[in-house]
Specification:
alpha+beta; four-stranded antiparallel β-sheet
């Protein structure tokens, strides 16, 4: 419902003085992405790319994930799936002190991993770790190592299964990789030394 305001939001966040911003599509059973909404999202990124290029040319290193992170990951050989391993790399703390593997699960008691008082339930955490792997339909895809296909959070919220990616998530990842590559090409062509200085050492 709000994707038509993405460019406006990115510009506002930058103008307020923030140095980076992370954008992710809304997931879950209450969200329905239509072809029209995805077209609108593309239109927003068509506005965002020249804006980010202009900031870069001015020496402003404002970073917008996932675009900038996709570029950095490609240059450094990082696997984006490493960012989201349920209960391994990060924990979310709810208002009541309970621990969850991701902020996306704060409203789902079945995904509680413990609490700040009692610590992490290791057996439950190990069960979650086993859920993070590349889904079978993605294994032959050329983009599998640049995609968040093994994000258990997104997969569970979109399809109900940690090993099944939704068509919407697949389309979104393809779109973001396309725009990230376009932005990277433009920035490299404009200022190659500044490009490598900005991206090569970042993850």
């Amino acid at each position: 419902d709000t994707c038509g305001k993405l460019f406006e939001s990115v510009k506002l966040i930058h103008d307020l003085g923030f140095k980076s911003m992370v954008c992710n599509p809304a997931y879950g059973e209450k969200v329905t992405w239509t072809d029209e909404a995805l077209d609108e999202l593309r239109a927003q990124y068509d506005l965002i790319l020249p804006y980010l290029k202009e900031l870069f040319l001015q020496g402003d290193e404002f970073r917008l994930a996932p675009l900038h992170s996709k570029i950095s990951d490609l240059l450094t050989g990082n696997d984006p799936s490493r960012y989201c391993h349920l209960g391994v790399r990060q924990l979310a703390v709810a208002y009541d002190g309970k621990l969850y593997p991701c902020t996306s699960f704060l409203h789902l008691p079945d995904w509680c991993l413990g609490s700040v008082e009692d610590g992490v339930h290791e057996e439950r955490r190990r069960e979650m770790v086993k859920m993070c792997f590349i889904p079978e339909p993605c294994k032959d895809c050329d983009l599998k190592m640049r995609c968040t296909n093994s994000c258990g959070c997104a997969n569970i919220l979109n399809t109900g299964s940690p090993d099944m990616i939704s068509p919407m998530q697949c389309e979104y990842e393809r779109m973001i990789i396309e725009y990230a590559d376009s932005l990277g090409d433009q920035l490299f062509e404009a200022k190659p030394e500044a490009f490598f200085r900005s991206f090569k050492g970042r993850t």
